[in-house]
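Work Package 3 (structural annotation) set out to generate three-dimensional models for the target panel prioritized at the project kickoff. During this period the team completed the workflow that converts sequence records into discrete structure tokens, so that structures can be stored uniformly alongside our sequence database. As a representative example, we reproduce one entry of 388 residues exactly as it appears in the project archive.
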Amino acid sequence: MNRFVAAERAVRTAAPHDLLDAVRRVLVEQYAAEGVELFMADYGLTVLQPVSVLPHTLEPVSVHNSPEGRAFGAQEPFVEDAPGGGGLVRAHLPVSVRGDRLGVLSVALPGGDHVRDCLTELAEIAEVLGREVVVAERDTDLYLQARRKDRLTLAAEMQWQLLPGRSCSRPEYELGAQLEPAYAIFGDNFDWSATAEHLMLYVTNGMGEGIEASLLTNLAINALRNARRAGLPLADQAALADQAVYAQYGGDCYLSVLMFDFELATGRARVVDAGSPQLFRLREGNVERVELEAQLPLGMFEETDYVTQEFRAEPGDRLVFVSDGVYAVASPKGETYGEAALARAIQATRLLPAAEVPRAILRELTGHRGQRIPDDDALVVCLDWLGR
């Protein structure tokens, strides 16, 4: 049995809470590793948190200016000389699942030919570890605890558990999304689901604050998923979710959502625009807001009928979806962030991969808002359409 198979088997057969110890043991035995650490990206995508038994034995490292952060951002292995010399190097390996960036596996091992010979296998082991972490999260809180550098509010806990991930990639598209304030979000949300031929993408802007906002969003998202999984078309999904929200709240609370059903082979999409999320398109260097036919938010009135409109994405398009917590944010002087500033931010991030764009735009937004405490969620979703 070769060493990669041994490592893969060790990770796959480990207890959910024991994944790091299992990979550490097999890398020491099979790859002459002298140190192995796993770091998870925090909810705000600012630091990489060490996975260890509390209290942490290692300090968090920055996503933006550390060797581990370099591997995380580039999604490529990065090798550096280990502190103290001795011929050792540290290989930092991205831990990701289908484009969803989870963290970094850092391995100290002999340099030279040894690291060159095993780097590809180590990168594949990190990928196997990522898949097992996702499965293990059903049975242990260890990795979810490691993702947080601060305590989540209860509303934020509910919202993060509702999300499909923060990034995703397939040959036809790349997706990235981020919510702020990460540790105290209320009602904004995103959801996606793909089949062999379609990508369905939902961007939600909830109303209210705290638990009430989170409960409203949970009801609406699960109603949309229930209708989607029943095989219903987009307009019927909106109608059934609308009925569910109205039945619960009687029109006192409602929810805005922008819904897309992309055909992967052609880029054609059916769209339901039910409220305030906005779409901006970067095409051939030009940014423009895409005007859609606005319909009523979900749950505002009883038995609202929804109709779809047509949209088409071209290969090379970058689509950026934002909630009103982005474009309507005011500066300390009361100036709204607005379309022009958002267009500049989209231009400024045009060379970044889709997974990094939302966080970069939200950093720009923080600069505009200044020291003011956010009074609304801010949601950015970036979709790079590659086409077939």
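Residues 83 and 259 are 50 Å apart (CA to CA).
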